Write the structure tokens for this entry.
Amino acid sequence: MLPDDILYRCGDGYKKNIREMSNAWNQTQRMKRLAVGSIAAPEYIEWWGRRINDNISGPSQGDKKSLLEIQNEKGELKARVAELEKTLYQYRNRNSVIEL
């Protein structure tokens, strides 16, 4: 059967019938949520809170660094950046001399 034949046999009210069925289904779902939600809300909220907290991982022992170690690493990285900038400046100067 072709889709056009189906629509013809259903008549002009097929959209109305589908809309009515959809609205009835949505209303049923809302009523279920309302009825179950008021009963299970405290337990559900508690469960949801535990679920979220269980998914958050704390810092592992391998990731812990002291503030002093982090500051030292930051200083070393700044020194490396300064060294690379100096090298880049020298390279550009050498290239500009070669172009002249």
Notes: The first helix runs from residue 3 to 10. DSSP finds three helices and no strands in the chain. The chain has a mean pLDDT of 75.
